[in-house]
Structures are given as structure tokens and as C-alpha cells.
Write a structure and sequence with these properties.
- Helices cover 42% and strands 19% of the residues.
- The protein has 377 residues and is an alpha+beta fold.
- The chain folds into 2 domains: 56 residues; 311 residues, (Glycosyl)asparaginase (Glutamine Phosphoribosylpyrophosphate, subunit 1, domain 1).
- Helix 1 packs antiparallel against helix 2, helix 3 packs antiparallel against helix 4 and helix 4 runs antiparallel to helix 5.
- The radius of gyration is 27 Å and the shape is globular.
- The two termini are 38 Å apart.
Length: 377
């Protein structure tokens, strides 16, 4: 600010003295004194306006909200996507972003914004989550999700669920309606039914696109000698990881993060990736940031990627941008992993680094306008 409290006192005393001189000196007051007093009055008036403006700006920044989303990372190239297909992806991301933002703008919680925005992406066949989930080696769909509250550090997660339309909503129920953090498989299904969540048949998750992806990978595997072990991560590096996620900051300064996925195409033996693992695929802490990840899950689990961003901020003093870049561009890459994250800190700053060719992503800018990006631009 322009003045300290002591300066304010001095200015006030000087103005009072000027007034006294006017009252006692009358027309004897010379022109130089009059000009000095006039400048002082003008200076003080400007100061009042500046202080009022700065104070109002501090109130606005104190109630700042923010939200960012992702729809997966991988080899996403412009030359491989028609203009119509690209616009379809952009429209779905924009819809999810606006749903979450309207909740925040209306005073809703970051948890509500995260859940409802992810619901939009789970209900779309475009993304590998919910309706668009990929197939396992046995031709079924097994879904994972997690959500975390940055205010309380409470979290909920589900893994390998087969009949849950919106796994992120079930993960939130685990967080809020049970003493546990993660429920899996049939146990999670029983829990969901007890709380009134209606199951859907496996047929609900069928899309021709995902089915053909499975057949393509199986055909590729047949070309490998039968006595050779299945390669680590049978999904080709040329394919994208369609996991979805949202991070948000609400008007109360609370952060939240959520992630939902169908996992990896052709996964076997009940494989579970990073998406439902707190600290790997999802993390939120009001003291630092909220993070949602997408990529080759095994690397994100081993690197505790989501938590590592928060830890670098909390214990290393790094900014969000510095921490996020260090974890994705240095640590994850050095491990041989691929993918990206979205993250938001308690000031509303957003980071979205990735080390793949593209990542479906979006955020609301400072003016409340949606920004959607897909490629490395």
C-alpha cells in the first residue's frame, strides 16, 4: 500500500494544521502555504482511492475459484483426428468444465464440482471412464476411481467395479459414508447397492470403438511366440490413456481432486492402475495443491506422482509450476513413464504438464472463459 499507519497520522496532522492556518490566518496565508496545503489534500485524496481499490482487489482474490480437467494423455496427433472429431472432444470437455465452474461460481464445494464434472465425462463414450471404458483381456469392463478432500485429507476410492455407472460418485460415498478409503470388486458393489446406487449391466459399457481396440491388441499378441511372457503393459505406447480427472478450488479456499478410468485395454488378472490410488493418481491438500493424473499407471504408482508434486511444494518450497514440471518432465521421464497431470494450488494457479504428444485438457481462465487444449500447443 502507498502509506503506513504512521504516515496516515502525519498526513492527518498536517491537514489539521492547514485548516487551523486558514481559520486563524485568514487572508494573511501566503500563496506558497496555500499551494502546499492543496497538494497535501490532493495527495491524501488519491491515497484514499488507492487504498480502497487495493482492499477491494484483495477481497476479490480471496474468493477466487478455479477448475481444470483432463480427458487423458498419449499419442494424440492433429493429423490423426478429423475436424469433426476434434470438435466433439472439445465440446464434451467444455461441457464438463462449465458444469463444474457453475457449481463453484454459485458457492458450491470443490468436491461437488469435481464429482459432477467427472460425471459428464463418465457418461460420454469418448473417454476411457464410465460409458467409454476399455475392455479387459476377458472382454469385461472394470472401472476405478478416487476422490480426495484437501480440507480434511479424507479420501475415497473404488477399484475393479463392473456395474457402477459413475465410479467417482461411488468413491465419494466410500469417503463420506464409510470408515474406509478403498473398496474393490464385489464388496464395492454390495456397498453401492446398500446405499441405493442402482447397478447397470455390463452391456451398458459396450462401445464398438473400445471392442475393436481390444481385438487389435489381441491380434498383435498372437504374433508373439506362445512361450514368451506377456510384455509389461501390453497396451502399445502409440495408444492414448483416456483416464479423466478434475481438480478444483472453491470460494472457501478448499481444494479437491478426482480421477476416474476404465484402466488399460487388455488388462489381466484384476490389474489396477494409479487412478484409485491416493498419492499416485489423485491427491489434494489445502496447504499445497490438488492433482489428478493420467498415463501409464504402474509408473505413477511407483513414483507416487500426485503426492510428490504436493511434497515438493510443502517441503521444498517450490511453486506449483516448478513442482509439476519437475515431477513430470524429470522424474516420470527418467523412470521411463509417460503421461501428465493437472494441478491447481490454493491461489488458483494451474499447471498441466505432460510428456506425451498430447493431452485432452481444459481450464477456466481468470475472466471465467473456458480454455480447451488437446495438442502440444
Amino acid at each position: 500500500m502507498a502509506f503506513s499507519g504512521l504516515q496516515t497520522v502525519f498526513a492527518t496532522v498536517a491537514i489539521v494544521n492547514c485548516i487551523k492556518q486558514f481559520a486563524t490566518g485568514g487572508n494573511r496565508m501566503n500563496e506558497s502555504i496555500f499551494q502546499a496545503c492543496f497538494r497535501l489534500f490532493l495527495y491524501f485524496g488519491v491515497w484514499v482511492v488507492v487504498v480502497g481499490f487495493v482492499y477491494s482487489q484483495e477481497l476479490v482474490s480471496g474468493s477466487r475459484i478455479g477448475i481444470a480437467i483432463h480427458g487423458g494423455a498419449g499419442t494424440i496427433l492433429k493429423e490423426n483426428m478429423s475436424p469433426e472429431e476434434e470438435e466433439t472432444y472439445r465440446a464434451e470437455l467444455r461441457e464438463a468444465l462449465l458444469v463444474g465452474y457453475e457449481i463453484l461460481k454459485g458457492g458450491g464445494s470443490s468436491l461437488d464440482a469435481v464429482e459432477k464434472a467427472i460425471n459428464i465425462l463418465e457418461d460420454s463414450p469418448l473417454f476411457n471412464a464410465g460409458k467409454g471404458a476399455v475392455f479387459t483381456n476377458s472382454g469385461t469392463n472394470e472401472l476405478d476411481a478416487s476422490i480426495m478432500d484437501g480440507k480434511t485429507l479424507n479420501a475415497g476410492a473404488v477399484a475393479a467395479v463392473k456395474h457402477t455407472k459413475n465410479p467417482i460418485s461411488l468413491a465419494r460415498l466410500v469417503m463420506e459414508k464409510s470408515p474406509h478409503v478403498m473398496l474393490v470388486g464385489e464388496g464395492a458393489a454390495v456397498f453401492a447397492e446398500k446405499l441405493g446406487m442402482k447397478p447397470v449391466p455390463q452391456e451398458y459399457f459396450y462401445t464398438e470403438k473400445r471392442w475393436l481396440q481390444l481385438q487389435k491388441i489381441k491380434a498383435r499378441e498372437k504374433s508373439v511366440a506362445p512361450d514368451k511372457p506377456v510384455p509389461r503393459g501390453s497396451q502399445s505406447r502409440t495408444e492414448k490413456f483416456g483416464t479423466v480427472g478434475v481438480v478444483a478450488l472453491d470460494q472457501d479456499g478448499n481444494l479437491a481432486a478426482g480421477t476416474s478410468t476404465g484402466g488399460m485395454t487388455n488388462k489381466r488378472f484384476g490389474r489396477v492402475g494409479d487412478s484409485p490410488i491416493i498419492g499416485a493418481g489423485t491427491y489434494a491438500n489445502n496447504q499445497t495443491c490438488a492433482v489428478s493424473a493420467t498415463g501409464h499407471g504402474e509408473y505413477f504408482i511407483r513414483g507416487v506422482i500426485a503426492y510428490d508434486v504436493s511434497a515438493l511444494m510443502q517441503y521444498g518450497g517450490l511453486s506449483l509450476a516448478e513442482a509439476a514440471d519437475k515431477v513430470i518432465r524429470e522424474k516420470l521421464g527418467a523412470m521411463g513413464g509417460s503421461g501428465g497431470i493437472i494441478a491447481i494450488d490454493r491461489e488458483g494457479n494451474i499447471a498441466m504438464p505432460f510428456n506425451t504428444a498430447g493431452m485432452y485438457r481444459g481450464y477456466m481462465d481468470r475472466n471465467g472463459k473456458p480454455v480447451i487444449r488437446i495438442y502440444r500447443d
